[in-house]
Amino acid sequence: MLFRSKWKMEKHIKIKNYNEVYLQINCSDSISYELRDYFSFLVPGHQYIPQFKAKLWNGRINLYDVRKRLIYRGLLQHIITFAQDRNYTISYENEVYNNEFSYTEGVQFIKSLNLKIEPRDYQIEAFIHAIRNKRTLLLSPTASGKSLIIYLILRYLHDEQKHRKTLIIVPTTSLVSQLATDFSDYGYDSDSMVHRIYSGQDKETEKPIIISTWQSLYKMPPKYFEQFDSVVGDECHLFKAKSLMSIMVNLTKTQYRIGTTGTLDGTKTHKLVLEGLFGPVHKVITTKELMDQKHIADFEIKCLLLKHIDPLCKMAKNYSYQEEIEYLVLSNSRNNFITNLSISLNGNTLILYQYVDKHGKILFDKINSKIDKSRKTFFVYGKTDVEVREDIRRIVETETNAIIIASFGVFSTGVNIKNLHNIIFASPSKSRVRNLQSIGRGLRKSETKSSAVLFDIADDLRSGKKLNYTLSHFEQRIRIYSEEKFKFKIYKISLKE
Hints:
The protein contains 20 helices and 21 strands. It is an alpha/beta fold and 497 residues long. The radius of gyration is 25 Å and the shape is globular.
């Protein structure tokens, strides 16, 4: 009998809440080591990270701390799966949170807000899901109206549950202003209720809603974060930086944790980290469903595959990745092609580039030297003042034939311009997140727009059968377009010197 009791204890996992960030695991040493291995993953691209090259790090991320026996609370369901697969028994000292909040109650609350726009069914469902479950990662594509979902959540938490303060973390200064503006458009008094924090702004306020970039807060002491009852991580696919994750870890008393994103990068590590910090993924709607329901613009992709002249291809045969990129962004014939393309297009056009001085400024100067002076052009990069970015966004909404030359870092994520007709990828990228987020800039409808086109510029530098680096990245983008069921067509173009 004693042996059997001991055996049962060795096959049992006991879980309790350590704080609002972590669960504490009580189990045998052997199970603890199994958990460590189960929640240990190689970081994508680890082989290129200096610490790995210097043999100071094994390239792995461990989500379970075997010494402290701690793991993110959002991974509870994964722990349950781990136990069930191994026939381990499991007990949880605290109840799994599920607020009794009915669909009818949710709809009645929304009606009480007297919104200027009518929420869509999937937005209502996402709002109710978040309130019921307290912790969740809402996966909803660009142009699906995530800002309205966030607005419904924070209004309920403050109007009905009397939360003291909510922290909304966004990746860019542009989104700080844009989200506050969206709330005003929904009928909220943003001036008196919402405090905006970005470079140089005061971090202390009595206002109940704080919208901040993570860069403005990550150095704040743990005591600062005790004031928040709820946190929303908007565009939380970017929550990979160590300093950004430290903010979430410092929110030890924050019960409501809602993440919103349109894109995950496809890796298991990324998904589990985000679920750990916020909660299980909840798919709200897909881009294809939005298109089918006519909520977003019809969208097509024209892949322009530029074949460079043979002498340059032979010269580029032994280029490193960085050397290839350097050649492409400085290529006069390539930049002339992008310039002529952008000027020939009708409607508002967004050109996205990677390097400011080496590429963005060159394109801006070339376009300005050729364009009809009656057309407006704008140049945007990281150092462009946040108020200026917001002014540009508003101006373009009233324009019909403007050109914006903007860096990927500033305009690929979150920026809401409904009146975009064309997007040009001037710089090659294989990032699933960046590509899908950038595509999202063109999906919104407006009174003067019901369709949009992406021009994906790709480069064939082959001399022989071996693919050049960026052509390989182009193939990866094609796979993404196929997976997302986008309409696309490849046009082969011979680039002249």
